[in-house]
């Protein structure tokens, strides 16, 4: 059996690494399973792509579709046509897509239209309810044509059931991003900026912002960052700046004060500074999962989340996009009143092994 594993963007690489490792372990145990890694090229610079292959020991892709940049539609079209061309030359038996990026949706569509190739969605069923987010569209479209759903939570399971998916297609396995986190935690690397800014454990804040609603309007970004500066009591705020945010930040005049704007960090470096931060303030989804497992207080600058378990069980709190909510959240943090949190069910580092075990059973590969 030939399985295609699709990856195209930073979050994908973190999620596929343990799946590849689990497939290779199954091969050694006699499972009739082969894979090919298809890099769509959605993220194509070294910091957003190459570093992850090196640091997470991901093998070189069998194919790189080299989609590159473009509008949402242009990038989707490049990925679909590139992947369709590969499937016409050499079809697979199962296409595994992960997460909710453009590559996930585009390759799922191409696979289903090519002789109805089976699609498995790792992290299926998550929903934010916010249709202004491109990722939400990607999730809904992908799940509408998925055959097998590998889910991270009971919330995701119920979302799928409400959409009419039967239980025999839903496999609650946990979170592959957390598999990678547990494996790599002993290898986290102290970045050079630790000494540059004289950082000390629990005496700095980490901030990440990249969603259009927060960063595309310079006035809105300025308002958010001003509130963070005022609320952070002079602690250094380490801000790895997403490429889309860098130019806008320059126009705010706020890349001074206690805001330490830096280039994006590698996986091992970023998680090092996140692990030892007093808190993380973010509009990312994946970071809220990592902070939950590491027990780090997390504030999410969004009005909804597709990962509610990080709030219900974990250390994350949804504080919304209103800048006025920032000061009360920081006050709670500095008073030592932030919740301790716990780790959600099956986020135990063994998710990828469960996924491959289910695939072996479904396709009778032993």
Short account of what is shown:
The protein is an alpha/beta fold. The protein has helices spanning 10-28, 46-55, 72-89, 102-113, 134-144, 154-162, 176-184, 193-196, 212-215, 218-231, 243-252, 267-275, 286-294, 309-312, 326-334, 351-362, and strands at residues 2-7, 34-39, 63-64, 94-98, 118-122, 148-151, 170-172, 205-208, 237-240, 259-262, 279-282, 298-300, 316-318. It has a seven-stranded parallel sheet, sandwiched between helices.
Report on the architecture of this protein.
- It is a single chain.
- With 366 residues, this protein is α/β, with parallel strands linked by helices.
- 45% of the residues lie in helices and 14% in strands.
- It has 16 helices and 13 strands.
- It has a 7-stranded parallel β-sheet with strand order 3-2-1-4-5-6-7, with helices on both faces. Strands 10-9-8-11-12-13 form a 6-stranded parallel β-sheet.
- Strand 4 (94-98), helix 4 and strand 5 form a beta-alpha-beta unit.
- The longest helix is centred in the first third of the chain and has 19 residues, at 10-28.
Principal-axes geometry comes out as globular
Strand content: 5-15%
Strand order in space, largest sheet: 3-2-1-4-5-6-7
Mean pLDDT: 93
Largest sheet: 7 strands, parallel
Query: How large is the count of helical segments?
Result: 16
Structural key phrases:
alpha/beta; 366 residues; globular; six-stranded parallel sheet; seven-stranded parallel sheet
């Amino acid at each position: 059996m030939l399985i295609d594993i699709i990856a195209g963007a930073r979050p994908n690489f973190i999620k596929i690494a343990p799946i590849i490792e689990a497939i290779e372990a199954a091969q050694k145990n006699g499972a009739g399973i082969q894979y090919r890694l298809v890099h769509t090229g959605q993220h194509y610079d070294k910091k957003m792509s190459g570093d992850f292959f090196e640091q997470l020991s991901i093998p070189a892709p069998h194919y790189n579709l080299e989609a590159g940049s473009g509008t949402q539609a242009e990038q989707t079209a490049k990925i679909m046509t590139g992947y369709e061309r590969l499937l016409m030359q050499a079809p697979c038996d199962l296409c595994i897509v992960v997460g909710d990026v453009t590559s996930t949706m585009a390759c799922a569509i191409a696979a289903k239209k090519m002789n109805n190739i089976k699609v498995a969605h790792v992290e299926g069923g998550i929903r934010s309810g916010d249709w202004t987010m491109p990722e939400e569209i990607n999730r809904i479209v992908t799940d509408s044509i998925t055959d097998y759903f590998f889910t991270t939570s009971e919330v995701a399971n119920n979302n799928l059931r409400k959409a009419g998916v039967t239980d025999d297609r839903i496999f609650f396995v946990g979170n592959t991003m957390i598999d990678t986190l547990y494996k790599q935690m002993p290898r986290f690397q102290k970045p050079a900026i630790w000494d540059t800014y004289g950082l000390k454990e629990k005496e700095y804040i980490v901030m990440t912002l990249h969603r259009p609603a927060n960063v595309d309007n310079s006035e809105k970004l300025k308002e958010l960052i001003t509130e963070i500066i005022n609320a952070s009591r002079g602690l250094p705020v380490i801000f790895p700046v997403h490429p889309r945010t860098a130019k806008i930040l320059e126009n705010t005049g706020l890349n001074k004060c206690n805001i330490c704007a830096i280039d994006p960090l590698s996986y091992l470096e970023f998680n090092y500074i996140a692990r030892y931060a007093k808190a993380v303030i973010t509009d990312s989804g994946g970071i809220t999962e990592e902070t939950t497992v590491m027990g780090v207080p997390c504030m999410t600058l969004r009005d909804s989340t597709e990962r509610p378990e990080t709030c219900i069980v974990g250390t994350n709190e949804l504080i919304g996009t209103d800048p006025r909510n920032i000061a009360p959240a920081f006050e709670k943090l500095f008073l030592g009143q932030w919740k301790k949190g716990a780790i959600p069910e099956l986020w135990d580092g063994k998710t990828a092994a469960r996924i491959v075990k289910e695939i072996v059973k479904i396709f009778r590969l032993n």
